[in-house]
Design brief:
The protein has about 300 residues and is α+β, with helices and mostly antiparallel strands. It is about 35% helix and about 25% strand. The strands form 2 sheets. Strands 1, 2, 3, 4, 5, 6 and 11 form a 7-stranded mixed sheet that branches. A 4-stranded antiparallel sheet has the order 8-9-7-10. Strand 5 and strand 6 (about 155-160) form a beta hairpin.
C-alpha cells in the first residue's frame, strides 16, 4: 500500500493555453493504492466534494489511471484506490488531474517499480481525457512541479522550470462549478493571425520570466487574450477581483484553467493580495489559498 500526495495546479497560466501549467504547494489530493488479484475498485473517498466523486472504478480517474499504468507496465494485478480530496470538483485547480496523477504514481510505487514521469503522465492522461479532454497542462504540473511546458501530448513531452523562490501564488475559488469540457466548447476554434502571434509571444515571455525571475516581464506577459475574455463572464466578479489583485501589488492575475478559480502571482505581499481579492468577491462565498509554488510534483508520503 502506498499513499501519494499530488499537488493542485493552475492550467494555462494566463496565455499558455494547454501548454503551461503551474504546481501549487500545500493543497492537493492524497491517493492510496494497493494491489489485488481481484477486480479494480474504489475503496473510499473522503474530503472536499467527496460525494461527487464516482465510486465506480470504470469512471473514477484515480482508478482509471492506476489501471492504465499497471496495464502499460504488463502487470496483471488491479488497483484498490482510496482518495482524500483536497481539491474541489470542477473548481479550476486541477482536481481530476491530481487524482489521476496520484492514482498512476500510487500504482507504480505499490508495484515496486521505478516511476518514470512520462509513464505516469501517459496513464493520467488516459483518465483525464474522459472527464476533461485530452490536455496535459495540469497533469504535467502535478507530476513534475514548478512551471511546466507541454511540447506534445503524443508522444508525451513536457519539461519543468523551477519557479523563483520569492514568488508566491494566491488562489481564490468562488463556490460555483465550471466543467472543463463545457468551458472549452465556448472557445473559438479559429483565431486571427495577429492575435495568435501576440498570444504566442506572451506565452514565450512568461516562461522566460519564470526562468530569469523577471517580475517586470511577468507583469507584461501574464496577458491572456484568448480564453480569459470569454470565460470571464462565467466567474462572479472576475474583473473586479483581478483589478483588486493588481491594485494590491500582484505581479499578474488570471483564470486558473477553465475556472472558477482565479489566481494571482505575488512576491512577499500574498496576504494583502488575498484579502483584496476576497473583498472584491463581495457577497459570493469563496475559498482562498495563499502559498508557495510547488518545487516538486507528486510524491509518496507513506
Amino acid at each position: 500500500m502506498t499513499t501519494v500526495f499530488a499537488p493542485a495546479s493552475i492550467g494555462n497560466v494566463g496565455p499558455g493555453f494547454d501548454v503551461l501549467g503551474l504546481a501549487v504547494d500545500g493543497v492537493g489530493d492524497k491517493v492510496t493504492v494497493s494491489l489485488t488479484e481481484g477486480d479494480a475498485r474504489v475503496d473510499k473517498v473522503t474530503g472536499r466534494d467527496a460525494e461527487l466523486v464516482p465510486r465506480d472504478a470504470q469512471q473514477n480517474v484515480a482508478a482509471i489511471a492506476a489501471t492504465a499504468w499497471l496495464r502499460n507496465a504488463g502487470i496483471r494485478k488491479q488497483p484498490i484506490v482510496s482518495i482524500e480530496k483536497g481539491l474541489a470538483v470542477a473548481g479550476g485547480m486541477g482536481g481530476s488531474a491530481a487524482s489521476a496523477v496520484g492514482g498512476a504514481l500510487g500504482a507504480a510505487l505499490a508495484a515496486g517499480a521505478s516511476a518514470d514521469s512520462r509513464d505516469i503522465m501517459r496513464a493520467a492522461l488516459e483518465a483525464e481525457s474522459i472527464v476533461a479532454g485530452r490536455h496535459l497542462d495540469n497533469i504535467a504540473a502535478s507530476t513534475l512541479g514548478g512551471l511546466t511546458i507541454v511540447l506534445s501530448t503524443d508522444p508525451i513531452d513536457a519539461i519543468s522550470i523551477p519557479a523563483p523562490p520569492q514568488w508566491r501564488v494566491v488562489l481564490l475559488t468562488p463556490r460555483v462549478r465550471i466543467e472543463t469540457k463545457k468551458a472549452r466548447e465556448i472557445l473559438p476554434q479559429q483565431w486571427d493571425r495577429s492575435s495568435w502571434t501576440r498570444q504566442m509571444a506572451s506565452t514565450t515571455a512568461l516562461a522566460y520570466a519564470f526562468a530569469s525571475a523577471d517580475a517586470k516581464l511577468l507583469r507584461r506577459a501574464l496577458d491572456d487574450r484568448y480564453a480569459e475574455p470569454i470565460r470571464a463572464d462565467l466567474i462572479p466578479n472576475f474583473r473586479e477581483v483581478k483589478r483588486a489583485a493588481l491594485d494590491a501589488g500582484a505581479l499578474g492575475c488570471s483564470i486558473s484553467g477553465s475556472g472558477p478559480t482565479i489566481f494571482a502571482i505575488t512576491t512577499d505581499n500574498d496576504a494583502r493580495v488575498a484579502e483584496a481579492m476576497r473583498s472584491a468577491m463581495r457577497d459570493v462565498e469563496c475559498d482562498v489559498h495563499a502559498g508557495v509554488i510547488a518545487r516538486r510534483g507528486a510524491h509518496a508520503i507513506r
